[in-house]
Automatic annotation (TrEMBL):
Keyword annotations of the record: DNA-binding, Transcription, Transcription regulation
SMART domains given in the database record: FCD, HTH_GNTR
Tagged with keyword DNA-binding: yes
Species assigned in the record: Fusibacter bizertensis
Domain HTH gntR-type: 11-78
Pfam family, one: GntR
Name used for this protein in its record: GntR family transcriptional regulator
Coiled-coil residue spans: none
Keyword Transcription regulation belongs to the record: yes
Length: 231
Protein backbone atom coordinates (compact mmCIF):
# COMPACT_ATOMS: atom_id res chain seq x y z
CA UNK A 1 0.00 0.00 0.00
CA UNK A 2 1.03 3.66 -0.50
CA UNK A 3 1.92 4.03 3.16
CA UNK A 4 4.98 1.90 2.79
CA UNK A 5 6.30 3.92 -0.13
CA UNK A 6 7.39 6.31 2.61
CA UNK A 7 10.45 4.13 3.11
CA UNK A 8 12.24 6.89 1.24
CA UNK A 9 12.14 8.71 4.59
CA UNK A 10 14.31 5.92 6.02
CA UNK A 11 11.62 4.89 8.48
CA UNK A 12 11.33 1.30 9.60
CA UNK A 13 8.27 -0.75 8.73
CA UNK A 14 7.35 -0.82 12.42
CA UNK A 15 7.49 3.00 12.60
CA UNK A 16 5.27 3.35 9.55
CA UNK A 17 2.71 0.92 10.95
CA UNK A 18 2.82 2.68 14.32
CA UNK A 19 2.18 6.06 12.67
CA UNK A 20 -0.66 4.65 10.54
CA UNK A 21 -2.51 3.06 13.48
CA UNK A 22 -1.85 6.12 15.67
CA UNK A 23 -3.33 8.37 12.98
CA UNK A 24 -6.38 6.09 12.69
CA UNK A 25 -6.91 6.32 16.46
CA UNK A 26 -6.49 10.10 16.59
CA UNK A 27 -8.75 10.58 13.55
CA UNK A 28 -11.48 8.49 15.15
CA UNK A 29 -11.36 5.42 12.91
CA UNK A 30 -10.72 3.42 16.07
CA UNK A 31 -12.47 4.67 19.20
CA UNK A 32 -12.12 3.95 22.90
CA UNK A 33 -12.94 0.30 23.62
CA UNK A 34 -12.21 -1.01 20.12
CA UNK A 35 -10.03 -4.12 19.96
CA UNK A 36 -6.96 -4.08 17.73
CA UNK A 37 -6.36 -7.63 16.53
CA UNK A 38 -2.78 -8.25 15.49
CA UNK A 39 -3.48 -10.79 12.75
CA UNK A 40 -6.32 -8.68 11.29
CA UNK A 41 -4.15 -5.55 11.16
CA UNK A 42 -1.30 -7.51 9.55
CA UNK A 43 -3.69 -8.77 6.88
CA UNK A 44 -5.15 -5.30 6.22
CA UNK A 45 -1.71 -3.73 5.93
CA UNK A 46 -0.22 -6.59 3.94
CA UNK A 47 2.64 -7.19 6.37
CA UNK A 48 3.76 -9.89 8.79
CA UNK A 49 2.56 -9.90 12.40
CA UNK A 50 5.98 -9.03 13.89
CA UNK A 51 6.10 -5.29 12.95
CA UNK A 52 2.42 -4.95 13.90
CA UNK A 53 3.16 -6.44 17.31
CA UNK A 54 6.05 -4.01 17.80
CA UNK A 55 3.90 -1.08 16.66
CA UNK A 56 1.20 -2.01 19.17
CA UNK A 57 3.82 -2.05 21.92
CA UNK A 58 4.85 1.49 20.93
CA UNK A 59 1.21 2.60 20.99
CA UNK A 60 0.91 1.17 24.51
CA UNK A 61 3.96 3.19 25.59
CA UNK A 62 2.30 6.28 24.09
CA UNK A 63 -0.78 5.56 26.20
CA UNK A 64 -3.11 5.21 23.22
CA UNK A 65 -3.88 1.51 23.80
CA UNK A 66 -3.97 -0.95 26.68
CA UNK A 67 -2.85 -4.56 26.50
CA UNK A 68 -5.39 -6.25 28.77
CA UNK A 69 -4.84 -9.89 29.86
CA UNK A 70 -7.40 -12.29 28.33
CA UNK A 71 -8.80 -9.49 26.21
CA UNK A 72 -5.97 -8.23 24.03
CA UNK A 73 -5.08 -4.74 22.80
CA UNK A 74 -7.84 -2.21 23.40
CA UNK A 75 -7.94 1.42 22.25
CA UNK A 76 -7.83 4.11 24.94
CA UNK A 77 -7.63 7.11 22.63
CA UNK A 78 -7.49 10.70 23.83
CA UNK A 79 -9.88 11.66 26.63
CA UNK A 80 -11.16 15.13 27.58
CA UNK A 81 -8.77 15.07 30.55
CA UNK A 82 -5.88 14.20 28.21
CA UNK A 83 -6.75 17.21 26.05
CA UNK A 84 -7.00 19.47 29.12
CA UNK A 85 -3.61 18.24 30.35
CA UNK A 86 -1.98 18.75 26.94
CA UNK A 87 -3.39 22.27 26.60
CA UNK A 88 -2.20 23.24 30.08
CA UNK A 89 1.31 21.84 29.59
CA UNK A 90 1.55 23.37 26.13
CA UNK A 91 0.67 26.81 27.46
CA UNK A 92 3.40 26.51 30.10
CA UNK A 93 6.16 25.73 27.60
CA UNK A 94 5.21 27.70 24.49
CA UNK A 95 6.67 30.84 26.08
CA UNK A 96 10.01 29.06 26.01
CA UNK A 97 9.50 28.46 22.28
CA UNK A 98 9.09 32.20 21.80
CA UNK A 99 12.22 32.95 23.81
CA UNK A 100 14.51 30.38 22.19
CA UNK A 101 13.18 31.04 18.72
CA UNK A 102 13.76 34.81 19.05
CA UNK A 103 17.30 34.11 20.26
CA UNK A 104 18.20 31.37 17.76
CA UNK A 105 16.14 31.86 14.60
CA UNK A 106 18.06 32.29 11.33
CA UNK A 107 17.22 34.64 8.48
CA UNK A 108 16.13 31.88 6.11
CA UNK A 109 13.81 30.49 8.81
CA UNK A 110 12.17 33.89 9.26
CA UNK A 111 11.60 33.98 5.52
CA UNK A 112 10.06 30.50 5.61
CA UNK A 113 7.64 31.51 8.38
CA UNK A 114 6.71 34.66 6.42
CA UNK A 115 5.99 32.56 3.33
CA UNK A 116 3.80 30.16 5.32
CA UNK A 117 1.95 33.11 6.85
CA UNK A 118 1.38 34.67 3.39
CA UNK A 119 -0.11 31.38 2.18
CA UNK A 120 -2.36 31.19 5.25
CA UNK A 121 -3.61 34.68 4.48
CA UNK A 122 -4.19 33.75 0.83
CA UNK A 123 -6.20 30.62 1.65
CA UNK A 124 -8.16 32.40 4.37
CA UNK A 125 -9.50 34.75 1.71
CA UNK A 126 -10.58 31.69 -0.26
CA UNK A 127 -12.16 30.14 2.82
CA UNK A 128 -10.13 26.92 2.42
CA UNK A 129 -10.08 25.78 6.06
CA UNK A 130 -8.39 22.44 5.36
CA UNK A 131 -5.48 24.16 3.63
CA UNK A 132 -5.22 26.71 6.43
CA UNK A 133 -5.11 23.90 8.99
CA UNK A 134 -2.31 22.21 7.03
CA UNK A 135 -0.35 25.47 6.86
CA UNK A 136 -1.01 26.24 10.52
CA UNK A 137 0.51 22.88 11.46
CA UNK A 138 3.49 23.58 9.20
CA UNK A 139 3.93 27.04 10.75
CA UNK A 140 4.21 25.63 14.25
CA UNK A 141 6.42 22.72 13.21
CA UNK A 142 8.77 25.20 11.53
CA UNK A 143 8.64 27.45 14.59
CA UNK A 144 9.60 24.57 16.88
CA UNK A 145 12.56 23.76 14.61
CA UNK A 146 13.87 27.30 15.05
CA UNK A 147 14.38 26.67 18.80
CA UNK A 148 17.18 24.23 17.89
CA UNK A 149 15.91 21.94 20.66
CA UNK A 150 14.97 18.48 19.45
CA UNK A 151 13.40 17.63 22.80
CA UNK A 152 11.11 20.66 22.84
CA UNK A 153 10.30 20.14 19.17
CA UNK A 154 9.48 16.46 19.72
CA UNK A 155 7.16 17.08 22.68
CA UNK A 156 5.22 19.88 21.01
CA UNK A 157 4.87 18.07 17.68
CA UNK A 158 3.39 15.11 19.57
CA UNK A 159 0.99 17.45 21.36
CA UNK A 160 -0.08 18.91 18.02
CA UNK A 161 -0.78 15.43 16.73
CA UNK A 162 -2.69 14.27 19.81
CA UNK A 163 -5.12 17.21 19.67
CA UNK A 164 -5.28 17.32 15.86
CA UNK A 165 -9.05 16.80 15.63
CA UNK A 166 -9.80 19.41 18.30
CA UNK A 167 -7.43 21.92 16.64
CA UNK A 168 -9.11 21.38 13.28
CA UNK A 169 -12.56 21.92 14.78
CA UNK A 170 -11.29 25.03 16.55
CA UNK A 171 -10.18 26.68 13.31
CA UNK A 172 -13.61 26.07 11.84
CA UNK A 173 -15.35 28.02 14.60
CA UNK A 174 -16.60 31.48 13.66
CA UNK A 175 -13.97 34.22 13.68
CA UNK A 176 -11.08 31.98 14.79
CA UNK A 177 -9.20 32.00 11.46
CA UNK A 178 -9.14 35.81 11.38
CA UNK A 179 -7.96 36.00 15.00
CA UNK A 180 -5.34 33.30 14.48
CA UNK A 181 -3.94 35.13 11.45
CA UNK A 182 -3.40 38.30 13.49
CA UNK A 183 -1.73 36.27 16.22
CA UNK A 184 0.59 34.56 13.73
CA UNK A 185 1.49 37.95 12.28
CA UNK A 186 2.48 39.19 15.75
CA UNK A 187 4.66 36.12 16.25
CA UNK A 188 6.46 36.62 12.92
CA UNK A 189 7.05 40.33 13.58
CA UNK A 190 8.49 39.64 17.03
CA UNK A 191 10.84 36.99 15.63
CA UNK A 192 11.98 39.30 12.80
CA UNK A 193 13.04 41.78 15.46
CA UNK A 194 14.56 39.04 17.66
CA UNK A 195 12.45 40.55 20.44
CA UNK A 196 12.42 37.87 23.14
CA UNK A 197 9.73 39.42 25.33
CA UNK A 198 7.41 40.21 22.41
CA UNK A 199 7.88 36.72 20.93
CA UNK A 200 7.18 35.08 24.28
CA UNK A 201 4.06 37.17 24.83
CA UNK A 202 2.81 36.64 21.27
CA UNK A 203 3.16 32.87 21.56
CA UNK A 204 1.54 32.66 24.99
CA UNK A 205 -1.34 34.87 23.84
CA UNK A 206 -1.85 32.77 20.70
CA UNK A 207 -1.82 29.46 22.58
CA UNK A 208 -4.07 30.81 25.36
CA UNK A 209 -6.67 31.90 22.79
CA UNK A 210 -6.36 28.62 20.92
CA UNK A 211 -6.73 26.64 24.15
CA UNK A 212 -9.83 28.58 25.17
CA UNK A 213 -11.40 27.91 21.78
CA UNK A 214 -10.51 24.21 21.83
CA UNK A 215 -11.94 23.78 25.33
CA UNK A 216 -15.20 25.37 24.20
CA UNK A 217 -15.38 23.00 21.23
CA UNK A 218 -14.66 19.95 23.41
CA UNK A 219 -17.29 21.07 25.94
CA UNK A 220 -19.91 21.47 23.20
CA UNK A 221 -19.08 18.02 21.81
CA UNK A 222 -19.39 16.50 25.28
CA UNK A 223 -22.78 18.12 25.85
CA UNK A 224 -23.93 16.97 22.42
CA UNK A 225 -22.99 13.36 23.20
CA UNK A 226 -24.79 13.53 26.56
CA UNK A 227 -27.94 14.86 24.92
CA UNK A 228 -27.82 12.17 22.22
CA UNK A 229 -27.44 9.51 24.92
CA UNK A 230 -30.63 10.74 26.61
CA UNK A 231 -32.68 10.38 23.43
Amino acid sequence: MDLFDQKKENKSLTSLIFEKIREDILNGRYVSGDKLVEIKLADELGVSRTPVREALKQLELDGLVDNIPNRGVVVKGISKKDIDDILTIRLCIEGLVGQWSAERILDHEIKELEEIYDLMEFYSQKGDVDKIFELNTKFHETLYQTTKSRYLEGVLNDFQLFIKTARNSSLKSEGRIESALKEHKQIVEALKNHDVEAARNALVNHIANSNMNIKSIVQLEEEKLKNEAKV
